[in-house]
């Protein structure tokens, strides 16, 4: 298993609250802007897109790629971040 980034560790360490979308692992300034432009401005809005297909990794990755152009690594980082957050808080 790959190691997690500091950003990932910080995100999964506490409740999501009103964190911005770019607080998610794998989502930097560019992808965050693209997501915001499509109405996904907060991390919890992206969480909704993660939960709708029942946490299905392939469907979430496809959605992220289609919505903001995330590459394979970014997709995996974001998926892993949300999966771990859900395991801790849901």
TrEMBL record:
Source organism's superkingdom?
Answer: Eukaryota
Localization:
Chromosome; Cytoplasm; Nucleus envelope
Name a single GO biological process. chromosome organization
Give a GO molecular function annotation for the protein: DNA binding
User: Which keywords label this protein?
Assistant: Chromosome, Cytoplasm, DNA-binding, Nucleus
Q: Which InterPro entries match?
A: BAF, BAF_prot, BAF_sf
List the SUPFAM superfamilies hit by this protein, alphabetically.
Barrier-to-autointegration factor, BAF
Q: What is this protein called?
A: Barrier-to-autointegration factor
Q: Which organism is it from?
A: Oncorhynchus mykiss (Rainbow trout)
């Amino acid at each position: 298993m790959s190691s997690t980034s500091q950003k990932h560790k910080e995100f999964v360490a506490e409740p999501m609250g009103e964190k911005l979308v770019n607080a998610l692992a794998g989502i930097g300034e560019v992808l965050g802007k693209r997501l915001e432009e499509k109405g996904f401005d907060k991390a919890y809005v992206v969480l909704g897109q993660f939960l709708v297909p029942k946490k299905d990794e392939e469907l979430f990755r496809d959605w992220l790629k289609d919505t903001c152009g995330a590459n394979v690594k970014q997709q995996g980082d974001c998926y892993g971040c949300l999966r771990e957050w859900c395991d801790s808080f849901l």
